[in-house]
Amino acid sequence: MKNPQKVLILAACSCIILAHFYRLSTYLINFPNWGDDYLFLAYFTDLPRFSGMEFFQRTVEFHSYIHRIVWPRLFTALYAAFRSEFDFKELTILANLFTISVIYPLAKLLKQHHVNPWHLIVLVGLIYAPNGNLDNFALIGVLQHTTSLVFLIWISYWLSDKKNRSWGIWLSLLYPMFSTEGLAFIPCVLLLIIYLKDARVWLYGLCGIFVFYVYFIGYASPSTIPSSGSLGAKLFFTVKGAIVFIGAAVKKDLTISLAVGTIFFINSLFILLRYHQTKNNSLLFSALILFQTMAVGAMITLGRGNAQAGDLGVLFSERFSTYGIVFLCITYFAVIQPSLYKLHFERMWLAIPALIWIGISTVVAVPKLGNLKNRLIADVSNAYHFNTNTSYRMEEREIKLLKESGNYRFPTEVISLKMNTAKPEAISFPILPAYEAGINEFSSKVTGILLVEKQNKPQLFLPINSLSHSFKIKKDIPFDQKMSRFVVIPMQ
Question: d(Cα 252, Cα 246) in Å, to the nearest integer?
Fold first, then answer.
């Protein structure tokens, strides 16, 4: 064995990656994680009928008012070239493969600056920390958010390398094809070019203006804008939101995330200062990613927050968990650089709190993933038997995509009504205080999935969350527990 150290590091990193894909395979089923995932089945279904212009229009059209998710749709088109049947689970796992590519720039920079290579195991562990990867179990999450972050890491790597800087500069103009946040990165790159006194500043600036112009062709703003109030209030609210967003990577609590986020923000500023002093390209690489993540937090705050009410709850959504884990990973990457801080101890000791964090993330994620699979099984069974969903909107369009398009096949996890021979019984479920608009939540002492029967006829399935000991149901779905009987189906 020529280099046992490299073999051990490779083996450890491989085990972490395989564990991530094992979780994906175990807890996902062939069904949408959330309502937004249906847009990819619709796109896949319509692809054979597209003319050239229709293909272009459907690929670049807006999703949810502001997002042009061009790359996610193109990847779906590539998938369609090899598959005649759409599989949500398969496509989600395939998209997760892109995350492996970011290990290369991290490893190259560690080697370039003579950082202990054992840190790579910690970095890979942080990237795949289970509780920070919950968004990667949703198709739109991995195709939009995660591939966007992968692209950010790569263009930041190229921008930080003199030999490849041109690639980073011009490819950054394609960033908005992955997600709307790419628009925020263009001014960052322009400032970097100005700082570097690069002669391409005017050309890049004009190209950036052109990208903004093209992006917003045909844009129609929503009828209601969440962020309201004075300009000063909006500015303060946006800065606060950006700080809370990065602090939420540690704890999804407003006070704690604000305190932790402030520390992260100061550390990020110091990383930028040390790059100015040392010209260490690893610090430039880190600063670009860290400040772009904060910019994403600011954009979410402006688009989804409410300045008058001071509502920042949306920043704690699990759909943004990948941004938090990338922020933690890159912060760790920057701190282990010898040129950032002068430490009086070996930097490998920093791996201990990071590994503890990874362990806690694993423990915390296990029941969440169990609840995810429980909900997916209930969702697919509701769609198959009752043409409904208890959590998000399911209308005729979604039902036709599932049952009539010919491009989707229900998975084996669908609960069979014939197999449930248990006798229904009356159970009381106290209603809990309203937390989400349009949703009723009920407390439950039992766990698993409830089969609700009314007048001796099955009505719907309700997944019980084992952490909150409750289940949720949309207010527009008829549910009268006094007139209903229930069969408890154990968690699978």
Answer: 10
